[in-house]
Design goal:
Layout: H1 4-11, E1 33-36, H2 41-46, H3 48-58, E2 60-66, H4 78-87, E3 91-97, H5 103-112, E4 117-120, H6 130-149, E5 153-157, E6 165-166, E7 169-170, H7 171-178, E8 184-189, H8 190-195, H9 200-206, E9 213-216, E10 218-220, E11 225-227, H10 236-241, H11 243-246, E12 250-253, H12 262-274
Parallel strand pairs: 1-2, 2-3, 3-4, 4-5, 5-8, 8-9, 9-12
Antiparallel strand pairs: 6-7, 10-11
Helix pairs in contact: 6-7
């Protein structure tokens, strides 16, 4: 099965967004829900407008796009996806792209689509070394300056490989510590962090306000595959209790593998979240 990791590695290059009522010991009540569109990638490529209509009918409000074979917006133009989403009561808040020869074009398109965030979806250069991650951190700071000029916030989305160690140092920590914290934000993929054996809450405690975006997904740790909420080993409610501490503004539901139809999983996950609190 081809997973998103396979896609990112081969291409070189996800949101439930929610407002949460403040809570402490109780589960956070999800008020508004969004989705990383990679979750329904085949459906978006086949019929982008029709798929967005189905998502709106389920109840999703916030969207994060991901680069596809048809471009950053599944064959739609930036203003086109913005209008379709807005007409359906949704907003395109963020998008996954690569830092490559089309970088400036991606920045301009994101601004045109009305996005607030632009996310680098995978490591721009290969090499699990301290020196490479230092170079990448510097590149992120520069990319963030480009985004700032377009009134966008730059961020990076982690997978599992960033949590490998080199010279006794967790490589992900280099990205956090070396890049400009005021400009370079992180989209914390909770599922991939947990699969590596690390705790997202530790990072949230150490770097408060650095993670305005999340990917919320449940994971089968044994298979290292995503699954529907409540069917894996991740405590979704516990994660949501720490949204405010994280500085989280939007978080995106993402699922990469499915037992059945992707749209069924999308509906199931939405209904699961609505039952929390």
């Amino acid at each position: 099965m081809h997973t998103r990791r396979d896609f990112l590695k081969s291409a070189g290059g996800l949101a439930l967004s929610a407002a949460l009522l403040p809570t402490s010991s109780q589960a956070a009540k999800v008020k508004s829900v969004g989705l990383q569109l990679y979750t329904v990638r085949k459906e978006m490529l086949a019929d982008a407008a029709g798929t967005l209509k189905q998502l709106a009918k389920i109840g999703y409000k916030e969207l994060e796009s991901a680069r596809s074979d048809k471009g950053n917006f599944y064959g739609l133009q930036p203003k086109e996806i913005r209008k379709i989403a807005n007409d359906l009561g949704m907003s395109v808040r963020s998008g996954h792209v690569h830092i490559d020869k089309d970088w400036q074009r991606s920045v301009d398109a994101a601004a045109e689509a009305g996005q607030e965030y632009l996310i680098c979806s995978s490591l721009p250069s290969q090499g699990q070394t301290v020196a490479n991650y230092q170079r990448v951190a510097d590149l992120f700071s520069k990319a963030a300056e480009d985004c700032k000029k377009a009134n966008l916030v730059f961020g990076y989305h982690n997978h599992e490989y960033e949590f490998e160690k080199a010279d006794g140092k967790v490589l992900y920590d280099i990205l956090l510590e070396r890049s400009d914290p005021n400009l370079v934000k992180m989209e914390l993929d909770l599922g991939w962090v947990i699969v590596t054996g690390y705790d997202p809450l530790t990072y949230i405690e150490k770097y408060p306000g650095r993670f305005p975006l999340w990917h919320l997904k449940d994971m089968d740790k044994a298979k290292k595959e995503s699954t529907e909420f409540g069917k894996g080993q991740i405590d979704i409610a516990k994660m949501l209790q720490n949204a405010n501490k994280s500085g989280m503004k939007y978080f995106f539901v993402e699922q990469e593998e499915y037992a059945g139809a992707p749209m069924d999983s999308v509906k199931y996950n939405y209904e699961y979240l609505m039952k929390l609190g």
